[in-house]
């Protein structure tokens, strides 16, 4: 099924978030450990709000991939044509000295509450009777959120260190997020989605950078090479369960990757 690449709008950001979470939960053990409840409305709202904050900045670009066909929604297979977003790309363009100097983080995972950032009612009970079970549940939730927040911060720190050593201050195109719905993997949609960013980099004479973990092989097939692989030792979280009987993976190993499109 052919994919069409279009600019994404503000109204598309929630769908982008749902695709991002579905893809990460399907492919990343770390994400499954951080969000054992899966895709919740609160998590989607929190992640979407972060995207909204930076949407429209001149250096931030979004593209979406859509396909048109019958019964895409998985319903009764009605003959009418439906349009469905199957993936998206977010990339940054630092084409001048000023934008290169003011590189992200435009947002930081470590500055946002993990697990959706839900607001809790702190008013208590008028009866004066303390609900010990409710208090324990609230304390457990706060402890878990604290762990998730520290895991997020540690992983983000590795990204910032790699970028600081190799990308900071450089004019470049930076692929911030490339996601395809798990239902549509292995159809070539990721390659089609990233192509406009590579074309723009070629037009501007800029190198391309990105951060990858599980998809290193995919990017290598496009000509990217690994600049450096960072390591975050997660030993301090040893024994912390993901809520589904699992344990935190011992190391987080993202790779900064590079492509010179003009010599590819």
From TrEMBL:
Residue span, N-acetyltransferase domain: 173-262
Molecular function per GO: acyltransferase activity, transferring groups other than amino-acyl groups
SUPFAM superfamilies in UniProt? Acyl-CoA N-acyltransferases (Nat) (SSF55729)
Residues annotated as region Disordered?
102-126
Under the heading Pfam families, the entry gives:
Acetyltransf_1 (PF00583)
Q: Which UniProt keywords apply?
A: Acyltransferase, Transferase
Q: What is this protein called?
A: Acyl-CoA N-acyltransferase
């Amino acid at each position: 099924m052919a994919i069409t690449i279009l600019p994404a709008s503000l109204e598309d950001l929630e769908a982008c978030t749902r695709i991002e979470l579905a893809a990460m939960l399907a492919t990343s053990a770390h994400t499954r450990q951080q969000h054992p409840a899966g895709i919740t409305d609160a998590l989607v709202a929190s992640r979407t709000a972060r995207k909204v904050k930076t949407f429209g900045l001149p250096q931030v670009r979004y593209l979406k991939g859509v396909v048109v066909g019958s019964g895409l929604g998985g319903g009764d297979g009605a003959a009418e044509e439906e349009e469905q977003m199957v993936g998206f790309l977010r990339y940054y363009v630092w084409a001048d000295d000023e934008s290169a100097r003011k590189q992200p983080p435009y947002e930081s995972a470590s500055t946002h509450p993990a697990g959706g950032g839900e607001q809790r009612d702190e008013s208590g009970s008028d009866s004066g009777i303390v609900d010990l079970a409710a208090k324990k549940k609230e304390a457990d939730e706060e402890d878990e959120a604290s762990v998730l927040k520290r895991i997020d911060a540690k992983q983000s720190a590795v990204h910032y260190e790699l970028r600081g050593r190799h990308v900071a201050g450089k004019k470049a195109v930076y692929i911030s997020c490339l996601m395809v719905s798990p239902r549509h993997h292995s159809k070539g949609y990721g390659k089609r989605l990233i192509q406009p960013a590579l074309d723009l980099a070629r037009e501007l004479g800029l190198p391309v950078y990105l951060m990858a973990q599980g998809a290193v092989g995919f990017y290598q097939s496009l000509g990217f090479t690994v600049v450096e692989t960072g390591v975050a030792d997660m030993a301090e979280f040893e024994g912390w369960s993901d809520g589904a009987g699992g344990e935190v993976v011992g190391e987080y190993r993202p790779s900064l990757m590079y492509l010179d499109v003009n010599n590819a």
